[in-house]
Design a protein that fits this description.
About 15% of the residues lie in helices and about 30% in strands. It is of the alpha+beta class. The strands form 3 sheets. Strands 1, 2, 4, 5, 7, 10 and 12 form a 7-stranded mixed sheet that branches. The longest helix is centred in the C-terminal third of the chain and has 14 residues.
Length: about 325
């Protein structure tokens, strides 16, 4: 049962300097009081929702969802809200919201979710998606997108999937704006990944550059000779690196490795071309392994066939 309290969301122009403002113009697809259209969808006793007061933010209320039991599918606990307006293929949208939370069962302790603008019914095709994680401090999520769906009024909705963990998630300051063809994706603000030492002049970068020179580089002497073994002065030499000694890898998803169509082939080609070591993103973790171990085994076999070693993750699940 959701307890919704009508509130007034502060205008984007009042956002503090630490937060990015939603650019003016465009058509709002959610009301200024976005909480008024949100509702919780979950099985009995699986989750609860309430509106809570918020201080020191550009909004006064947030929707707090507490996931008590993890559903079979992540959409088993979700927040839904009907969106308004005509959606045309090629429209440029900006989804913006603030989030904070906790998830003791998650490795990082942070809450996690995915927000979608999707068709309301049928195959629930996605027009915009924004995955997020957040700890105890408020985080702003800004996701611009150019959509490829055409949906008339009344056939699209916002869905926020939260059934990943037993967790508590607070969401506030939610807005969705359709700029049509008056803006480009590049012009709109976007959440940037930040971490300690992110800046270009961070001290660790100088040490890393020094280590690269010391560990990963070596002198190479090339002697060019003609057919009789005589040196060739001024010969032009080009070197093409085919492989390197150091592991260079990424997390890959077993499901994506076996996806069909152009995207699936592009994913496999990217893995083959750019990485010489990988880790399976989730498929060797105990929940996923117990749910579908054959998928993980198939992925390991495919990677082995292409000479790509795999780092096992994870042996012990807390």
């Amino acid at each position: 049962m959701v307890r919704l309290i009508p509130v007034a969301i502060l205008l984007p122009a009042l956002l503090g300097a630490q937060w990015a403002a939603v650019p003016e113009g465009g058509a709002a697809m959610l009301p200024a009081d976005s909480l008024s259209v949100l509702r919780l969808s979950a099985g009995a006793g699986m989750a609860s929702a309430e509106v809570v007061a918020v201080d020191g933010m550009p909004f006064e209320r947030a929707l707090r969802v507490t996931v008590n039991r993890v559903p079979e599918q992540v959409w088993g606990v979700q927040v839904l809200g009907r969106t308004s307006g005509q959606l045309r293929s090629g429209d440029v949208l900006l989804l913006s919201f603030f989030v904070r939370g906790s998830a003791p069962a998650n490795e990082s302790g942070e809450a996690y979710g995915t927000a979608y603008l999707q068709r309301d019914g049928g195959a629930y095709e996605k027009a915009v998606s924004a995955s997020f994680s957040a700890g105890s401090q408020w985080k702003q999520v800004l996701t611009p997108a150019r959509v490829s769906l055409t949906l008339p009024e009344g056939q699209h909705a916002l869905a926020i999937h939260l059934g990943y963990f037993a967790q508590s998630v607070e969401i506030g300051g939610l807005s969705l704006v359709n700029y049509g063809d008056t803006r480009t994706v590049a012009e709109l603000p976007k959440t940037r990944i930040q971490y300690e030492g992110y800046s270009a002049d961070a001290p660790w970068r100088a040490e890393a550059a020094s280590n690269i020179d010391r560990i990963r580089k070596a002198d190479l002497r090339v002697r060019v000779e003609d057919a009789e073994g005589r040196p060739v002065p001024g010969a032009e030499v080009r070197l093409l690196q085919r492989r390197h000694r150091f592991p260079f890898g990424s997390a890959v998803a077993a499901e994506a490795l076996f996806a069909g169509g152009e995207n699936g082939e592009r994913y496999r080609e990217t893995v083959r071309t750019w990485f010489n070591k990988v880790v399976l993103e989730n498929d060797l973790k105990w929940p996923q392994w117990e749910a579908n171990r054959q998928r993980a085994l198939n992925a390991l076999a495919w990677l082995g066939e292409h000479g790509i070693p795999v780092r096992g993750h994870t042996l012990v699940w807390p």
